[in-house]
Amino acid sequence: MKRKLVVIGSGMASGRALEHLLEADPDGWDVTLFNAEPRGNYNRIMLSPVLSGEKSYAEIVTHDDDWYATRGITCRFGEKVVSIDRQAKTVTGENGTVEYDKLMFATGSSPFIIPCPGHDLPGVIAYRDLDDTNAMIEASGKPGGRAVVIGGGLLGLEAAAGLRLRGMEVTVLHLAGHLMERQLDPAAGYLLQKDLESRGITVLTQASTKEITGKDGAEMVRLEDGTELPADLVVMAVGIRPQVQLAKDTGLAVGKGIHVDDQMITSDEDILAVGECIEHQGAIFGLVAPLYDQAKVAAATLLDEEAAFKQRQLSTKLKVTGVDLFSAGDFAEGEGREDIVYRDPARGIYKRLVIEEERLIGAVMYGDTADGNWFFGLIKDGTDISEMRETLIFGPAYQGGGTQADPLAAVAALPDDAEICGCNGVCKGQIVKAIEGGATSLGDVKAQTKASASCGTCTGLVEQVLAATLGDDFKMPEAQPICGCTDLSHEDVRRLIKARELKSQPAVWQELGWTTPNGCHTCRPAVNFYLLADWPLEYKDDPQSRFVNERNHANIQKDGTYSVMPRMWGGMTDANELRAIADAADKYGATVKVTGGQRIDLLGVKKEDLPLIWGDLNAAGMVSGHAYTKGLRTVKTCVGKDWCRFGTQDSTGLGIKLEKRLWGSWTPHKVKLGVSGCPRNCAEATCKDVGIVCVDSGYQIGVGGAAGMDVKEVERLVDVRTEEEAIEWVVAFVQLYREHAKYLDRPYKWLAKVGLDWVQEVLADATERAALMERFDLSQSVYQKDPWAERATPETRRQYEPMADLTLEAAE
Amino acid sequence: MSWTDIGSLDEIPVRGARRVKTRAGCIALFRTDEDEVFATSATCAHRGGPLDEGIVHGRKVTCPLHNWVYSLESGEAQGADEGSIATYPVRIDAGRVLLDLSSLEAHAAA
Ligand code: SRM
Ligand SMILES: Cc1cc2nc3c(=O)[nH]c(=O)nc-3n(C[C@H](O)[C@H](O)[C@H](O)COP(=O)(O)OP(=O)(O)OC[C@H]3O[C@@H](n4cnc5c(N)ncnc54)[C@H](O)[C@@H]3O)c2cc1C
Ligand code: SF4
Ligand code: FES
């Protein structure tokens, strides 16, 4: 007698299981196959080529009507199973009940839908089956259609690429910092994003969806940060959940998925489960390779043969034509683990191998994945690689000793029209031409092209062009690299960030060939500053790349408490402010000190109290004094002509105006100003980064003073007649300093490198001054925000508190 | 092992840290760029700097006070500096951070 097998779900896992079973025992089973989808089994993973138009549905069907008919399978397609009676051993579908001897769950998974407002509007779909695919194809038929894909993992990106190929305007929203973060490290994620962007797909990372709006269907996606994206189609591809409801209702043991043992048997010995709906030893599955293994085991179990399912290593590829990526194994870095990183910035290639105890345990590759399977084999087999370690990264074909990644590659890769010398507008091609025409030294190049003849910050780059062009004939002067993560100097990195429009940290790490995954405490703060100074709108400041004071917006003290210093504009305060400060000192137990910078310091405040004391001071109208930043500190003033019998101009008023204009901006190092009302100079303006001495005829502006580790007197930048001109010159000077100086160079150090002459020459040009002011104001539109007000909220307060307090619990 | 739920992984910034108070002293929970979590003593072996306020790079942290660098995995100071901090078993399960308190109690007893 034939045994009765009922299968719930006709997908890739059960399809394979039936093949194995009926091949081994064609006459032993009477099979009933339910499927909620109104069709039989097709190759679900090939939906992406169907979407992009590279394949038709007919081409991806794996089991057609004929296949089921020949095997006598009763197909109940388009019919959902609604209940199971384990006592009676019956399965009930929407159209009736059947009996079983053995039952197999193969219900797969269902896409997770973010429950945001508007998720149920027409035009919001998931990406799971043929119907979804057809809906996307139809939506893309409308000319000029716009699609927003939520989720930058495998599925989301395949959907985005397909929709783009069909002519839609596509934006991908991704919550994490880089695409496919589960399969790729940030470097490879960066290259992938660049590749997709070059296809015309917009990618927004750290984008959190707030709601979808529209009248009769989706029209707009709104993000938490307020960004609005018009959309005719919204595809949610944010993850999948095993489809377990029916199994749960049936009383089977279910965790994340349906629990099965090594034989694919559930908690009921007559019920098996295979595919994405199962949980095996804590793991759930989302790729077909393990499902096929499970299918084989399930068939064997039904045939009373011995077999056991074993989880194995998986590798990932993205099915977007022309995008070449591969990842396998465990690629997190760590103690006892060694990274071999190879980057070819010119060709957009990145490879990283992770080695532990002489074995390869992980690999991520982008741009050239030809050796992926070979590496995958080494990972799976646990091969001892000590013999081939040196040449491992070059793949199986390479056996002749390793070549090092060329540190000059970044410059060698620059196109001929890349601007090297910004001051004189000299491109790489012109320099190469001069070298080919006989120039052999920096001096020659300078004389013939004027490159590096002005501010000199491009000197390092010019030298690298020389080295790259002349090869061994050129001896590179030793440039100080930023730190152990790179061979490039600060100046090189600044120039390259501008010339090659690098707008994110991973872009810098990749394009400039960093040797560590994400820098160190020396280079990260510098690179973070360069990026935000050059790309105020595109780059987002990274608090995790800042020293503690700048991250917490207070100065840390030796005992771990903090000091809090409100701004006192130009050193002016009033009774109200003083009362609020006194109250705060009482309330938070702070020590009060008058600083050397004309304001009041509240010392010894606990970290968790910071948002509270800020809120109190904010309420009295005070903002952060930024006593902790590489940014504008104090503007020291004297009483000036309002009170002083010698005062010539309103020095206090000008100081306050300058402070109000400049506060909040980030600079390479701290910037302090002073404005004195007459040459008696009571505000010590002549030892400030920018110091103004008022005189009868106007304002003398000096720059490059200091009174810290070095004591320097200012040099005269210019004399101007009006207050407006004075402000204009000061703002333009600060912006020039922001754009050119090396991180942690005070202005006097920077001036010593570029020369006051050059600065005067640049700033003398009124259009240049205006352009600098405009760029400064653009940056201020992002950064002139009181960090206290932004953080004195209940949500932020939690971040300033310990994550957990276990002292109480442990005492129980 | 006694795994205690400390909170959601999302509460720790990527390449950042959060502090947990315990009877045996403060523990810092670090989250790396690759979303791994490590737990160490929050107190620098040099002069007691708060390590949860340091810059996290790779699987290392730099103390905010005088730049000692520690391996988050072994707790050993790197480079020329000599010293070490305690490390504790920690794991992530379904987005929750779990800390093993039994080893902590052992530390407290020791
Ligand atoms: C609070 C204050 C001392 C005081 O009690 O008066 C102070 C305190 C610190 N100064 Fe200062 N400086 C203070 C006025 C000065 C002055 C005088 C001035 O501004 O008129 C100078 C010399 C003038 C100058 O900068 O040219 C000064 C030169 C320095 C330097 C050396 C800078 C240099 O380029 O040589 C440092 C170290 C650094 O920045 O790298 C420094 C660093 C520090 C730090 C931030 C050290 C640190 O990194 O933790 C101190 C923080 C203490 C704390 O916990 O709050 N402090 N510091 C003063 C705050 C002024 C304000 O209202 O903001
Ligand atoms: C667009 C896309 C691209 C992919 N690309 C890849 C890839 O490149 N590589 C890779 O390895 N994997 C890929 N996958 C994943 C792969 O397709 C799945 O792992 C695989 O299809 C899962 O097989 P399954 O049999 O477990 O479930 P499914 O194939 O989902 O089959 C389950 C079936 O059960 C039915 N069902 C559910 N509940 C009931 C019920 N109560 N009654 C009746 N029927 C029910 C469903 O309708 C469905 O047809 C991709 C997936 C998608 C959607
Ligand atoms: S001089 Fe400045 S840095 Fe030195 S101890 Fe005094 S406040 Fe601190
Ligand atoms: S206290 Fe940590 S380095 Fe000094």
Automatic annotation (TrEMBL), chain A:
Pathway assignment: Nitrogen metabolism; nitrate reduction (assimilation)
GO biological process, one term: nitrate assimilation
Required cofactor names: [4Fe-4S] cluster; FAD; [2Fe-2S] cluster; siroheme
Keywords assigned: 2Fe-2S, 4Fe-4S, FAD, Flavoprotein, Heme, Iron, Iron-sulfur, Metal-binding, Nitrate assimilation, Oxidoreductase
Region of interest (Disordered), ranges: 789-812
Domain annotation BFD-like [2Fe-2S]-binding: ranges: 420-467, 482-531
Residues the entry annotates as binding [4Fe-4S] cluster: C638, C644, C678, C682
All residue ranges annotated as the Nitrite/sulphite reductase 4Fe-4S domain in the record: 630-764
Gene3D superfamilies xref list: 3.30.390.30, BFD-like [2Fe-2S]-binding domain, FAD/NAD(P)-binding domain, Sulfite Reductase Hemoprotein, domain 1
Domain spans labelled NADH-rubredoxin oxidoreductase C-terminal: 315-382
Stretches assigned to the Nitrite/Sulfite reductase ferredoxin-like domain: 557-619
UniProt cross-references to PROSITE patterns, sorted A to Z: NIR_SIR
Cofactor note: Binds 1 [4Fe-4S] cluster per subunit.
Chain residues that bind siroheme: C682
Residue ranges, compositional bias (Basic and acidic residues): 789-800
Matches recorded under InterPro entries: BFD-like_2Fe2S-bd_dom, BFD-like_2Fe2S-bd_dom_sf, FAD/NAD-bd_sf, FAD/NAD-binding_dom, FAD/NAD-linked_Rdtase_dimer_sf, NasD-like, NiRdtase/SiRdtase_haem-b_fer, Nit/Sulf_reduc_fer-like_dom_sf
Domain of life: Bacteria
A molecular function GO annotation: NADP binding
NCBIfam families: nitri_red_nirB
Family: Belongs to the nitrite and sulfite reductase 4Fe-4S domain family.
Protein name: Assimilatory nitrite reductase (NAD(P)H) large subunit
Organism: Allosediminivita pacifica
TrEMBL record, chain B:
GO BP term, pick one: nitrate assimilation
Keyword Oxidoreductase: yes
GO molecular function, a single term: nitrite reductase [NAD(P)H] activity
Domain of life: Bacteria
Keywords: 2Fe-2S, Iron, Iron-sulfur, Metal-binding, Nitrate assimilation, Oxidoreductase
Rieske domain span: 3-99
Classification via NCBIfam families: nirD_assim_sml
Protein name: Assimilatory nitrite reductase (NAD(P)H) small subunit
Organism: Allosediminivita pacifica
